[in-house]
Design a protein that fits this description.
Radius of gyration: 18 Å
Number of strands: 12
Shape: elongated
Number of helices: 4
Helix content: 10-25%
Mean pLDDT: 92
Order of helices and strands: EEHEHEHEHEEEEEEE
Structural class: alpha/beta
Low-confidence stretches: none
Amino acid sequence: MSGKCIIIGAGDLTMGELSIGEDDYVIAVDGGLSYCGILNVEPDKIIGDFDSVSEQELEAVQSLQEQVPELVMQLPVEKDDTDMLAAIKYGLALGYKEFRIYAGTGGRFDHTFANIQCLLYLKNHGATGYLVDGTGMMLVIQDEAVHFRKELEGYLSLFSLGKEARGVSIRGMKYSLENATMNNDYPIGISNEFIGEESTIEVEDGELVCMIQYCVE
């Protein structure tokens, strides 16, 4: 797939527009459908159990389901997969390898943490995902090196997802690190800074959550 799978969740919406490519596929997850109108985006698929939408929004979903049944995938309320994970699995089944998740943070802390775990799910299934908001993004780095442009300004924080991540190196940033081990009970990787150089984060064995906060004037 040359395009991206763009998923709009029901968390906090921190941007007023999205850049949607011709080959991109848009999934609205549950209450994220209401954001599509704000963003002037038409979803290709609507997925959710719709247990947290308003009565008016539920009526709109039911009307769409009657008119265009292939557009809506209604999930049971009691299930193992979150609505977000169900949307991710759907995008993977379509063949997408790059995912952008908007409005996937904020609101309930458990939902935000579940969505971070979804980024790891994508990694474990041969894809890459980004949780994106108006001032930053999150991604999971697993047994790899990730490079960042020198034009970036702001802060970058790293946290070990597992008990430990080995062979962690940070190059081209304010605070460097070489072949270190990071543990998930000590937040040593918080608040590093971009310094106008090309930078690299590498982990040889393990998973890191990388959180980037841009400087916005």
